[in-house]
Amino acid sequence: MTCGKPGPIIIEMNTLGHHYWKQIKVLTWAKMKSRYRKTMAGFLWVVMSPILLFVTQAFVFKKILKLEIPNYYLFLLGGLLPWIFITTTMDMCAPALYSSRDLLKAFKIPPFILVCSQILDNFINFLFAFFLVLIPFVVITGTEIGGLLFIPLALFNILLGTTGLVWLLAAMQVFLKDVQFIIPFVTGVLYFITPIFYPIEYVPQQFLWIVKINPFYGIIQPFRLCIYNFSLETFLPALGLGFCFSMCFVILSLIFWRVKRDDFYHYL
Amino acid sequence: MTSTTTSENTILSVNNLNLVYKLDYYHQTLRDKFVKLVTSPIETLTSSKDSLHVLKNLSLDLKKGDRVGLMGVNGAGKTTLARCISGMLVPQSGEVKVNGIVRPIFSTNIGVIPELTGRENAFLLANLLYPDESKTELEVLIEDALDFSELDGFLDTPFLHYSKGMQTRLCLSIISAKACDLLILDEVFDGADEFFQKKITARVLKLIEESGAVLFISHSPDQIRQACNRVLVLNNSELVFDGSVESGIEAYQSMIR
Predict the structure, then answer these.
(1) Which CATH number is correct for B58-256, 2.60.120.280, 3.30.565.10, 3.30.420.140, 3.40.50.300?
(2) Contacts of A181 in chain B (CB under 8 A)
(3) What is the ipTM of this complex?
(4) Could you list the pLDDT tens digit for every one of the 268 residues in chain A?
(5) What is the DSSP letter of A107?
(6) Burial letters for B168-182: b for 16+ Cβ neighbours within 10 Å, e otherwise?
(7) Is the Cβ pair A107, B105 closer than 8 Å?
(8) A192 found inside a domain
(9) Which of A83, A86, B69, B79 is 20 to 30 A from residue B210's alpha carbon, by CA?
(10) Which of A12, A103, A174, A262 to mutate to probe the B interface, most B CBs <10 Å?
C-alpha cells in the first residue's frame, strides 16, 4: 500500500487543531488555578460540592423518602454526578463568550477555546468527584461493576453532548441575553422530569414519551448503566441513542454558529 | 468576504469594502418593541431597519514594507476597517485578501484571567497570541517580555490589582515580542507612562520594521511620523487621503481644525 503525503489543507487543519488544543489546555489549567485560588480549601471545594450534594440526596431519598431501589447509592451516583456536571457547565458556559467580550474584541482569539476550556475544567472536576466516591464504595462494599470498561465511551458521549449544548447556549447568549436567565429555570424543571433520582420504571406509561425525548436522560443513561445493572444488551442501544442526542446538539450548535457567526462581533 | 492569497509582494488587498451596522445590533427589549408598536404602529411596521454605513466603497493595498498610519476623527471607521481586515467583522460587500498571518491588537489593558498574577497572564496571553511557538521559544519570549516590562515585584500579584498603566506595560511587552506578516495596532500606546512610552515606542518601532506590513491607528502625529512611511485618512466612512506622511497629517489636521 502506498500513502501519499497529506495535502496542504490537511496539514493546515492539523496545525490549527494542534494550536487550538494547546490553547485549550493552557486556558483550562489557568481556570482551574484561578477558580478557588483565594479559598482556604482550594480544589477541595470543587470536588466536595457535588459529593456533598450526592450524600444529602442519597440520605433524603433513601432514608427519609425510603425509595425501595436496590443499591440506591450507586444508582444515584451514576445519574446525579453527570447531571451536576452538565447543568453546572451550562450555567457557567452560557455567559462565557459575552462576559469575555473585552478579551475577544482586544485580540483575535478563537471564541470556542474559551468555552471548551471551561467545559474541560468542569469535566476534570466531575471525574475527580465521581471516582472519589466510586472507588471507596466499590472497595468497601465489594460491589462488582460489570461495565467499568465501557465508562470511557459513556464519558465521551457526555462530553460530546455537553460541548454541543453549551456551545449552542454560549453563542445564543451573545444574540439573546435572556438565555442565561432561562437556563436555571429549565434545568430546575428538568431535574424533576428526568429520571435522575428515581428509576424510569417509576414513570407512568402515559408519561414515558417525555423521558424518551429527553436528551439529558438519553445522554446520562449509558453512563449510569456502566456502573448500575450493566448488560451489553441494554448498554449499546442506550449509548447509540445518547450518541444521537449528543450529535443533535453538536449539529444544532454548528448550524447556529454558521448562520450567525458573521454577526458575532457586532452583537458582542 | 474572501481571505485568500494575493500576489507575492502584496500583503493586504481591500476592494470596494462596504460595511453597514444595523441599528438593531443595539438590543431593544420586548417592552420597548411593544411600546413602539402600540404608540406608532404604522411607522413601526412600514419603516425599514435603521442602519449606519460605516465603510463606503473602500479600497486599498498594503505591500511588504508598508508602515501605514491610519488617521481620522472618532467614528470615521478606523477600528471597523481594522476589524474587517482581521476577519472579525464581515462586510456586506467587497473583499479582503490577506497574504500571511494577521495579528490585530485592539486593546492593551486586558487580562486573560484577571484573578491570576501578571506573570500567569503574560504566559496565557503569549500562548493565545503565539500558538505556533514551541514551549522553549515561548519561555524565552515571556521571560524577555517580563524583564522588559520592569514590573519586577508586581509580577506575582493579581493582574486585577494593577493600575491601567501597569496593565498596559505588561500587555505591550508581550504584544511587541514577535513580528508577523501584517500587524494591526489600534491606539496601543494609550495608558503607558512617559518613561515606558519612550521605551516601548523603540521596541514597537523595531517590531514594525521586522513585520511584513503594519497598519497603525493613532491620533498622534508624532507617533505616526516615527512609525509610518505612508498615511491613510478616513473621513465620514470614506478614504479621503492616501499618500505621504506629512501630507496625510496635514489632511487629518485640516479636518479637525
Answers:
(1) 3.40.50.300
(2) none
(3) 0.83
(4) 334 444 555 666 677 788 889 899 999 988 888 877 767 676 777 788 888 899 999 999 988 988 888 889 899 999 999 999 999 999 999 999 998 998 999 888 889 999 999 999 999 999 999 998 888 888 887 777 778 889 999 999 999 999 999 999 999 999 888 898 999 999 999 999 999 999 999 999 999 999 999 999 999 999 999 998 889 999 999 999 999 999 999 999 999 999 998 888 888 8
(5) B
(6) bbbbbbbbbbbbbbb
(7) yes
(8) yes
(9) B79
(10) A103
